[in-house]
């Protein structure tokens, strides 16, 4: 979790991204335990990192964050009660492996473009809120409720592919939403549900002091060394855990199951590319609108900032 907490503070992937595969794949513990441990440990590490981010006054995508928090408030309990209990252990492993492998592959071939974004595409704040609401609702009810992590990655993906957000905005925003959702998940499971899986508290007790320091330390260190090297390492680990999962479960999956898993990764990548194309189209529409407004207002000078970007409203 020393490694996981660093990843939690410096990347759009929570500490559960490391904790889940270590518990489930290395220690061969139940996937449901890995999910509950992810909720519990991130409620410490991600909160600690979020406090550090807020104290440093780092820019955040507030309109999208507010929508995502409301969506997660509705979606996460629904997923915990009505979806997660019916997902077999193997499917939990595969859901985690597929989503994170596709996310890792996205960064391995799009990182230079993603890291080159500046500011954030300027949309109407109501549009941003609605986008965050759907992200929080859908991600909370599905990937978060099943694996204990993921809303940070989904929100980050929407920000960098659809809104063309700077990593300095997208990553801190993803840390804050995962902190909120992790605390929400723990509260729902302990107060309204059947409680956390046996063994969660013991693992949490060992790791909590480490992540409380490690997550904000990750925020601090990555500001000095840059985000690209860290993202490349974590992306490689995401792909590696997918290969590891298929190798461990090859007898259960068989050739058809492994092919379906590969197809699922391809479908996720296709969805990411669809978001990227949609974002490019929206940026083009924003540029055309600003150009038309400048033509209609006599004597109005061209903006010195790149069209379609903003940072002042964040």
Structural write-up:
The structure is a single chain. This protein is mainly alpha-helical and 314 residues long. The protein has one domain. It is built from eleven helices and no strands. It has helices at 2-10, 16-26, 31-55, 62-82, 89-115, 125-147, 151-162, 167-192, 200-225, 228-248, 250-296. Helix 5 packs antiparallel against helix 10 (228-248). The radius of gyration is 20 Å and the shape is globular. The model is unreliable at 302-314 (pLDDT under 50).
Pattern of helices and strands: HHHHHHHHHHH
Distance between the termini: 31 Å
For the record, the count of structural domains works out to 1
Amount of helix:
over 70%
> What is the mean predicted local confidence, pLDDT?
85
Count of helical regions: 11
Global geometry: globular
Strand content: under 5%
State the secondary-structure class. mainly alpha
Give the low-confidence spans.
302-314
Major β-sheet profile: none
Q: What is the CA-based Rg, rounded?
A: 20 Å
Number of strands: 0
Region (Disordered): 290-314
Pfam family, one: TauE
Keywords: Cell membrane, Membrane, Transmembrane, Transmembrane helix
Transmembrane segments: 6-25, 37-54, 60-83, 90-111, 131-162, 169-192, 204-223, 253-272
